[in-house]
Amino acid sequence: MTALKVVGTRVTRRRRLPGWLKQLSEIGISPSDADELRVRKAVLVLSSTLMASLSLVWVATYAALGLWVSAAIPFAYQVASAVSIYTFARTRRYRLFRRSQLWMSLLLPFALQWSLGGFKTGSAVALWAITSPLGALLFVGARQAIPWFAAFAGLVAVSGAIDPALAARAPHVPGGVVVTLFALNVLGVAAVAFALLQYFVRARERALAALEIEQAKSERLLLNVLPEPVAARLKEHEGIIADACPDVTVLFADIVGFTPLCGRLSASDVVALLDRVFARWDQLAADHGVEKIKTIGDAYMVVGGIPVPRQDHPQAIAEMALAMGSEFARVAIETGHALQVRIGIDTGPVVAGVIGRAKFIYDLWGDTVNTASRMESHAPPGTVQVTERTYERLRTRYEFRLRETIDVKGKGPMRPYLLLGRRGDHESAVAGDLPERSAGVANEHSTQDAS
Asked: Any idea of the CA torsion for 434, 369, 291, 349, to the nearest 10 degrees?
């Protein structure tokens, strides 16, 4: 979006230029040119035109003084620049145009100074040659500009070496003209150098701004895939990210009857419904400080206590589960679909890490994960079912109902508990206060306090 704004700003600025200047700036530009190349071509054409136009001052001054050789050098630069610009407009050979401009900017100022008798009488006109390495730095590249600067330094050294000989046969130029042209040379070179460097700085700032925008986008995408602490570790070093977590609480949630509903709804309605439910659950996860791990179909998985450790992760997950039920009930009412959610929770050790190279994911493994999944699949619709070890961590703060023994695949007989609500609430409801309860829940036995 920012890149489009930058391009749009450039286009607007070009439209504000006079018609003839706009046409001049577009000489040699091809429709296939990248935006940055278009700007470089336009700047080179305009700067070459400006310098050739300013040369008229030196042509007129030295011609008026009768210094025809000295006047012929800037005049030759004007003619050569006009020819090179015309050739560039016809052939669009940018490299040839760029090279010719750099060579003329380098050599002709020294030639003019030598014709005038050196630094003093020539008003240090060789200063204009610095535009050649500066132009190479801007239009060619940092490494490629080094030889151009070395050539400029070499010519300065040569000029210094031969200056006494040149001064001995220097033509007469009035002192006022020398001082005036010296001031014009300093001012003109400074103005051109400032303009080029300003362009360079602005180009760098645009590039940095665009890079920051892309980095921000990448950061957001990465944080949508990985938890922030894990993403930070992944950026700092490459390698396997794996942690053994001795105590976390895992939650699985599943929408009851969702598969038959998919057969009755359109694809867009199915996705819209899931998006509405999961978006609200995502917000609940952020509010309760727990980490969403993944969704698989209509199943939703979160964990408390990792990757940022916290002692109260069972309570955080319990609050999350109760809030999930309430939000889901609201969605069911809003959409008119008679749906229920069932939730399973377990507390214990897990192994966590990042797997994969393409579409990588932060995931959990271990018996706690499997057991929480089993609690969800065996839970009556509209309930939150927890294991005994989760119950032991929460029983002083929450109301539970003990279920009859169930046979859990891979675990054998288990006696889970149903989380009803916080202790002290006047009306303890099954997870989320859903409108209907399973008939089997009504026959459950009340929890007996072990104490």
From this structure: 130
